[in-house]
Design brief:
This protein has 291 residues and is α/β, with parallel strands linked by helices. It has a single domain, classed as Class I glutamine amidotransferase (GATase) domain (Rossmann fold, 3-Layer(aba) Sandwich), CATH 3.40.50.880. The strands form four sheets. The chain has a nine-stranded mixed sheet with strand order 3-2-4-5-1-10-11-16-17, sandwiched between helices. Strand 2, helix 3 and strand 3 form a beta-alpha-beta unit.
Length: 291
């Protein structure tokens, strides 16, 4: 690995990818994690409301909650069309923020409005500079290079019920689905992985998040579980055959179900137990203490 590659890997920030409906009233565990990973006592937050049709309501809610959790300021970025994406004010808010948070709604609005713009570039630059970026629901799906846009819930997986589109490209090599077990989305994630066996499928429950570090390892936070679908070992699937509406066949797929405290090595596709996760945390803390 070259020195430039080492530098880029070291500088990558943290992604907090939330399956939606995170707890906003009781323990607020995931939102507390977001504030913590800014590594600032009183962080400034950029709140991107592009996904929702009620941006003012969403901004007011998160301003109140994140303020209670220690944020010095929460700056809403209301971008509703591509004409707004290159506004210098919005770009400066993103560059100056300690953390960036994407609210839920429609993930296709995020990618179609922000994709390829100066705002998108500023977000990617912030991530490479080591900042924390979080997204809930639609803000979770958009994190990957390819995202699920539409697909039937709560039915047997079929070959032609899934629509995908380019995401924002923050997390490579994965497809993310949210509200996962609550909306019965295992079928559509299996269909997505069968179309892209080299891509890791990650289904995230409500009030649950994965926290992805610079080394492409994630830990699970929240009250639900993460479902990981690994298609590299698939022996057979009928996804490419005729009759697109017939049920999907897929064999020898690998499935992991991980609650809070567990983790996963995305690069090597290996689960991480709580004991291993705790050991890593202690080693990181020791490094911080010796600085």
């Amino acid at each position: 690995m070259s020195e430039s590659q080492k530098k880029e890997t070291f500088e990558k920030g943290t992604l907090i990818i939330i399956g939606g409906a995170e707890d906003k009233k009781a323990d607020k565990t995931i939102l507390k994690d977001f504030i913590k990973y800014t590594k600032k006592r009183e962080p400034e937050i950029a709140l991107v409301t592009t996904a929702t049709e009620s941006p003012e309501k969403a901004a007011s809610q998160y301003q109140e909650i994140l303020g209670q959790l220690g944020a010095k300021a929460v700056h809403p970025i209301h971008i509703s069309d591509r004409d707004d994406t290159n506004a210098e004010r919005n770009i400066q808010v993103i560059r100056n923020a300690d953390g960036i948070f994407f609210v839920g709604g429609d993930q296709l609005r995020i990618s179609s409005i922000l994709g390829g713009t100066d705002t998108h570039k500023a977000i990617l630059e912030s991530y490479k500079m080591g900042k924390v970026i979080a997204g809930t629901s639609a803000g979770a799906s958009m994190m990957s290079e390819i995202m699920v846009v539409e697909g039937n819930d709560e039915e047997a997986p079929r070959k032609c019920t899934l629509k995908m589109a380019p995401g924002m490209g923050l997390l490579e090599g994965v497809i993310i689905d949210q509200h996962f077990n609550q909306r019965g989305r295992i079928g559509r994630l299996l269909a997505a992985v069968s179309q892209n066996p080299n891509v890791l499928g990650i289904g995230i429950d409500e009030d649950t998040a994965i926290i992805v570090d610079k080394d492409m390892n994630f830990t699970v936070s929240g009250s639900g579980v993460i479902t990981v679908v690994d298609g590299r070992s698939i022996r057979y699937t009928n996804i490419s055959e005729q009759h697109p509406n017939e049920p999907l066949a897929i064999t020898n797929v690998t499935l992991h179900v991980l609650p809070s405290g567990y983790g996963f090595d995305i690069t090597n596709r290996i689960e991480i137990t709580p004991a291993e996760t705790e050991g890593d945390s202690k080693r990181e803390q020791s490094k911080e203490d010796t600085k």
